[in-house]
Design a protein that fits this description.
By secondary structure, the protein is α/β, with parallel strands linked by helices. 46% of the residues lie in helices and 12% in strands. The chain folds into 2 domains: 250 residues, Rossmann fold (3-Layer(aba) Sandwich); 165 residues, Glycogen Phosphorylase B (Rossmann fold, 3-Layer(aba) Sandwich), CATH 3.40.50.2000. The protein contains 19 helices and 12 strands. The strands form 3 sheets. A 6-stranded parallel beta sheet has the order 2-1-3-4-5-6, with helices on both faces. Strands 9-8-7-10 form a 4-stranded parallel beta sheet, with helices on both faces. The protein is globular, with a radius of gyration of 22 Å.
Length: 441
């Protein structure tokens, strides 16, 4: 198949599960003989895990998209001027500032993007469609997340192809928007969902969430886990010299690092005085106040036993994980997946996670860790203590989890199933796209 992937870049500023999933899946599909092109949106993408760099231009550049949202002038500027704002150095700077925009502006821009050709970034959509018309027509277009569904109607109608869409934690973003923008965004997304031939969620939990919230027929939603490229992820030859808990994710309030910090201090005060806490995953400018609060409360007491690792590329993540006794990312709210769980287990490191969202499925299906009550530092400390006090059990859980990941959660095992979803989509038609084929969108 000829597959087009449209992926929003993260600017490489924080651990992005969607980016890593898309790259691993693209590489696996190519190994299986499919032609896959990636077009980046918003910010520069990462090339990690790909067999060749992403050389395509960036569409809907973050600076241009924002300027077109707030000013009618920039909706009419010539391309030569827009190109200045799409400079990669500027977009990387914008990526580091990600989240600094007021919530109202983010909500309004989200709704505008969901409206597609009726939104304020219509000029960017015209540019994307014109670019694709001059290339070989793909069999299917794939959107990295449901917040991109505003692109689907034009792509489907003008290129004559179906659109498949991943779902991944859109609810956390949309529910955080101020009222009434949150309700308007959900309503717009539900309307645009009719332009999608098939949705794919990485867990049964999140498939149920999005099927319900978008009022989708059950047959339009497929469950397919994110696949890991396990190359380079392997257990350490020897256990770490000192016991260590690790945190691998975007260093932001919603990921539960403050809960982990409280549990960590309780363990140090108890029976684990040598315990270390190691943290990596990157952050943006708006996360800095949280980082400072964490430093004042946890680092001030534990000192050098708490370490922030600035590098979180693939090689450094594998090295980081091998230095751990256990990994914990105690997210505040249920999450759609947890690629960091697969990476930890591939390195033989067990996990302790809250009993909600996809974590219940991941731990249940891999046997690689234990679950505890969500948003409860005392319960988290108890779960961590179970493994820290019984290293042989921890190692056994890590081995079991590693075997499960290599058997069921690799990108090469996921790719054929994803290709089959795409093939089936090519044999169906989007009801909304067919309905609106002859009308402006």
């Amino acid at each position: 198949m000829n597959i087009l992937q449209l992926v929003p870049g993260s600017g490489d500023t924080f651990y992005c599960e969607n980016c890593l999933r898309d790259n691993a899946l693209t590489a696996a599909l190519r190994r299986a003989g499919h032609a896959v092109d990636i077009l980046p949106l918003y910010l520069p993408p990462i090339d990690e895990g790909l067999d060749r760099p992403i050389e395509a231009p960036i569409f809907f550049g973050g600076v241009n998209a924002y300027l077109q949202q707030v000013s009618g002038l920039f909706r009419r500027t010539p391309r030569w001027l827009d190109r200045l704002f799409d400079a990669r150095w500027l977009l990387r700077w914008a990526g580091r500032r990600s989240g600094a925009t007021r919530a109202e502006a983010l909500g309004e821009m989200t709704i505008s993007m969901l409206r597609g050709a009726q939104g304020r970034q219509a000029k960017e959509l015209d540019r994307l469609v014109a670019f694709l018309r001059d290339r070989e027509r793909p069999d299917v277009a794939v959107l990295s997340n449901a917040l991109l569904t505003g692109l689907a109607r034009r792509l489907s109608r003008e290129l004559g192809i179906p659109v498949v869409c991943w779902c991944h934690d859109e609810d956390a973003f949309l529910d955080a928007l101020p009222a009434p923008l949150d309700a308007r965004a959900w309503e717009t997304l539900a309307d645009r969902a009719g332009d999608i031939a098939a949705f794919v969620a990485p867990s049964r939990y999140y498939a149920d969430v999005m099927t319900r919230r978008l009022n989708l027929p059950a047959e339009r939603m497929h469950v397919l886990p994110a696949g890991l490229d396990p190359a380079g992820f392997a257990p350490a030859a020897t256990p770490p010299e000192a016991p260590a808990i690790g945190f691998l994710s975007h260093i932001a309030p919603g990921k539960g690092l403050e809960t982990l910090g409280q549990a960590y201090l309780a363990l140090r005060r108890g029976g684990h005085p040598r315990l270390q806490l190691r943290i990596t995953g990157g952050q943006t400018a708006c996360d800095e106040p949280f980082h400072k609060r964490f430093a004042r409360s946890v680092v001030a007491e534990a000192g050098d036993a708490v370490r922030f690792e600035p590098a979180f590329d693939r090689e450094h993540r594998a090295e980081f994980l091998r230095s751990l006794s256990v990994l914990s990312v105690p997210t505040r709210r249920p999450e759609a997946f947890g690629l960091f769980v697969l990476e930890a287990l591939a390195c033989g490191v067990p996990v302790v996670l809250p009993r909600h969202g996809a974590f219940v499925e991941l731990v249940g299906e891999t046997g690689g860790g234990v679950l505890c009550e969500p948003n409860d530092a005392e319960a988290l400390a108890a779960g961590l203590d179970e493994l820290l006090s019984d290293p042989s059990r921890a190692r056994a859980l890590g081995r079991t989890g590693q075997q499960a990941v290599l058997k069921r959660y690799t990108a090469d095992s996921v790719a054929p199933r994803f290709a089959e979803i795409c093939r089936a989509a090519c044999g169906s038609a989007s009801p909304a796209a067919a309905r609106d084929a002859g009308s402006p969108s």
